[in-house]
Amino acid sequence: MAGQKTKIFDYTAYSLPTEGSAGFTGSWRSKRPVIVDAKCTKCNLCWLYCPEGTIIRVKGKIPIIDLTYCKGCGVCANECPSKAINMEDESKWLSK
Amino acid sequence: MVTINELTDDEFLLKGNSSCAGCGATMAIRWVLKILGKNTVLVMPAGCVSVFQGMFPASAFGVPVIDSSFGAQSSISAGLAAAYKVKGKKINIVTLAGDGGTGDIGLHAVSAAAERGDDVLYICYDNEAYMNTGVQRSSLTPYGAKTGTNPEGKMEWKKNLPLIMAAHNITYVATASVGFPFDLMRKVKKAASLSGFRYIHILTPCPPGWGTAENLAAELGRLAVRCGIFPLFEVEKGKLTLHKVSSRLPVSKYFEVQRRFEGLTEEQLKYIQSRVDEELAYLEQLEKITSKVSKAE
C-alpha cells in the first residue's frame, strides 16, 4: 500500500447523520399541536423551545410544524407567550 | 448577548431521534450545538445522550461523535485536545456527560482534566438520576426525591458539583437551566471564546424520571431557579457572579408538580427551605469575598 493514499473511512464502520434515526417519531404522538394563525405573533419561541427541532421557522411567516417527527410533548404550547398553539387530540384528526 | 434572530437555522441534533417526548437534555444540547456550530467534536460516555444518538448506521448528531466508555470521557477529550493542538486546528472539543457520568463514575477523570487544564468544554446535563437505565439514584439526586433504588426518598443532600469544579481554579464555571435559554446560550458562547478547561452545569428536567407532564421541562427549569433550588452563577478567574432572583418562590411550588417528591412531610419541606436559604446566603457571601480577588494569569 506504500505510496497509496488511504482514507480511514475505508476500514471502519461509521454512522452518518440521519433524520429519523429512531424512525418516524410522529407516530408516538397522542396530541397534535395546531397553531392558531390569528393569535400567532411570529416570535419563533416555539421554534426555539421545541426539544426536537421539528418546528421550522420561516422569516416573517407563521412557523410550520413537521408532523412526521413531532412527538407531541406540548412544550411549544406551554411556552407560547400568546397561547397560539392548541394541543388537539390525535384521534380527532385521524377521523378527518 | 444572544438573540433569536442571530441563531442559525441549521440543526446539529436531528429530529426523529429516540429521546423521550419533552426531554430537557435534547433542548439544552440543541441550543449548545446551535451556538458552537459544526466546528465541534463531541465526546460522550454512556447516558441518555448516547442512547438518542442512534444505532448504526444512523446518527442523530450532525457533528462527529466519539462514544467513550463510562468515566473515560475526559481522558479521551484530553487526548483529542492535545492531538488537535499538534495539528494546529482550532476545534471545539465538547464533552457531554450526565450527572452520573460526571459526579459519580467520571469524577476522577474530570478532576484530573480540570487540574491539567485541558482545552475542553465540559457540559454536564443534570437530570438528577441515572435516567436511561430506569431512574436510579446518583449523588446529584436531590434530597427527598424517590428513585428506583430509593423508593422512600433520598436522605442525603445533593452534591454541589459546580462549586467542586470551581474549587479546581479552572477558566470558567457556570450553571445554566433550560428555563432560561438565552442565558444558557450566552454562557456557552462565552465559554467557547475562552481556552482551558471550561465547565457548564445545565439543569435538564426529565419528565418520565421526575414524574411530571411532558410539556413542563422548560417551566420546571424556570421554577428551580425561581425557588432558589438551582441558583445560576458564573465563576470566571476565581470571581463568582450570582444571578439574583428578585422575588423568590417557596420551594413547595417546585415540588408539588413532581411525582418523585410525593409524600414529603412538612418538617422535610421546612428543612429543605432552610437549607436552600443557607446555600444561597453562602453563595452571596462567596460573591462578596471573591469580588476582591484578582488572579494573575
Structural class of chain A: alpha+beta
| CATH class group of chain B | Alpha Beta
Biggest interface goes to: A-B, 37 and 40 residues
Taken from the alpha-carbon principal axes, the silhouette of chain A is elongated
Radius of gyration over C-alpha positions of chain B, nearest whole angstrom: 18 Å
The radius of gyration computed from the alpha-carbon positions of chain A, rounded to a whole number of angstroms, is: 20 Å
Query: Mean pLDDT across all residues of chain B, rounded?
Result: 92
Percent helix of chain B, as a range, is 25-40%
Number of domains of chain B: 1
Q: Architecture of chain B, according to CATH?
A: 3-Layer(aba) Sandwich
Write up what this structure looks like.
The complex is a heterodimer of chains A (96) and B (297). Chain A contains three helices and five strands. Chain A is of the alpha+beta class. Chain A has a domain of 53 residues: Alpha-Beta Plaits (2-Layer Sandwich), CATH 3.30.70. In chain A, strands 2-5 form a two-stranded antiparallel sheet. In chain A, strand 3 and strand 4 form a beta hairpin. The model of chain A has no long low-confidence stretch (mean pLDDT 88). By secondary structure, chain B is α/β, with parallel strands linked by helices. Chain B has a single domain, classed as Thiamin diphosphate (ThDP)-binding fold, Pyr/PP domains (Rossmann fold, 3-Layer(aba) Sandwich), CATH 3.40.50.970. Chain B has an eight-stranded mixed β-sheet with strand order 3-1-4-5-7-6-8-9, with helices on both faces. In chain B, strand 6, helix 7 and strand 7 form a beta-alpha-beta unit. In chain B, helix 1 crosses helix 7 and helix 3 packs parallel to helix 5. The model of chain B has no long low-confidence stretch (mean pLDDT 92). Chains A and B meet through strand 1, helix 1 and helix 2 of A and helix 1, strand 2 and helix 9 of B. Strand 1 of chain A pairs parallel with strand 2 of chain B.
